[in-house]
Design goal:
Distance between the termini: 90 Å
EC number: 3.2.1.-
Order of helices and strands: HEHEHHEEH
GO molecular function, one term: hydrolase activity, hydrolyzing O-glycosyl compounds
Protein name: Glucanase
Structural class: mainly alpha
CATH class: Alpha Beta
Oligomer: single chain
Shape: globular
InterPro entries: Beta_cellobiohydrolase, Beta_cellobiohydrolase_sf
CATH architecture: Alpha-Beta Barrel
Strand order of the largest sheet: 1-2-3-4
Number of helices: 5
Number of strands: 4
Strand content: 5-15%
CATH topology: TIM Barrel
Largest sheet: 4 strands, parallel
Enzyme class: hydrolase
Length: about 300
């Protein structure tokens, strides 16, 4: 093999045969196909000439498309899947499964070293004492340290402490064989409820269930919208003029109240609050609120500005 000219490498295959034939195997851009001897041209079959205008129809002829054109079918809109409403039996099964999951979490986490489990018990403006005590018992509060109240809400420290005491006392009363429906509710007159507790529940904090409270946004208490101002006021949803509450601490001065915590991150949005309108603006604020869990700078500034105690 020797180096050839500009065409590339050449192999003198015919040198040994004495034929002198030079079989070139170089690539020729724009030239003959690879493997065709130099100086040789592709021949057309007899009586046929190369078409100087490929793709143009011959005289009197037509060009047949390689693929027949098909009319475009309009896209049919996807029909939404309509699921039937769950039956009462299905709802009961789901509720039972949820209780079983929470019970499993309590039994798994509470025995761990240094772990204390508090089950969410809503807040005083939502569940009655008897209603939430029944739920806590189903969820396994007997095996937990206690319960948490006012998570992500705005109830005052005083209301939280009283609500927590009533729940803890009712749990103790039921544990001693009492009827849950006899327990005082947070809407009872205060003196009447205190009298009931003195008669029916021993004041033994070490034997009772304790609680923690969320004070991240309760410095000014819950928001009371103007009467008739909104079709659905949603007072829990990014209410204006709220403030930070007391700083997280375990020094509460109440033997049943283990800690004040900032469970909800101050400044996180509660969601897009439409208050009974079509949206997208929050009619109380005049802005489009961030999605739930997203940072809401205007609300964060309000919480700092109206903090109680002040920063």
């Amino acid at each position: 093999m020797r180096a050839g000219g500009p065409g590339g490498a050449r192999a003198d295959v015919g040198a040994d045969t004495g034929t002198g034939t030079d079989n070139t195997v170089t690539d020729t851009p724009g030239g003959r196909p690879a493997g065709q001897p130099a100086g040789q041209h592709a021949e057309q079959p007899a009586g046929q000439h190369a078409d100087p205008h490929p793709g143009r129809p011959a005289a009197g002829g037509t060009v047949k498309p390689t693929q027949s054109a098909r009319p475009t079918q309009p896209t049919q809109p996807t029909q939404p899947t309509v699921r039937p409403a769950p039956t009462p039996a299905e709802l009961r099964a789901r509720t039972a499964a949820r209780y079983a999951e929470i019970h499993y979490a309590v039994d798994t986490l509470e025995p761990l070293p240094g772990a204390k489990v508090y089950l969410d018990a809503g807040h005083a403006g939502w569940h009655s004492v008897t209603g939430i005590v029944g739920r806590l018992l189903h969820a396994g509060v007997d095996h937990a340290t206690g319960f948490a109240i006012n998570v992500s809400h705005y109830q005052t420290d005083e209301d939280n402490a009283w609500y927590g005491r009533l729940i803890s006392s009712c749990l103790a009363y039921v544990a001693d064989g009492g009827d849950i429906m006899d327990c005082p509710d947070q809407r009872w007159p205060r003196l009447r409820a205190e009298r009931w507790l003195e008669i029916h529940v021993l004041d033994e904090p070490e034997e009772m269930k304790h609680f923690v409270t969320d004070t991240s946004r309760n410095g000014r208490g819950p928001w009371t919208p103007r009467a008739g101002s909104h079709a659905d006021p949603q007072p829990w949803c990014n209410p204006p003029g709220r403030g930070l509450g007391i700083r997280p601490t375990t020094r509460t001065g109440d033997p049943l109240h283990d800690a004040a915590l900032w469970v909800k991150t101050p400044g996180e949005s509660d969601g897009q609050c439409l208050r009974g309108t079509a949206g997208p603006r929050d009619p109380e604020r005049g802005t489009v609120d961030p999605e739930a869990g997203q940072w809401f700078p205007e609300q964060a500034l309000e919480l700092v500005r109206f903090a109680r105690p002040s920063l």
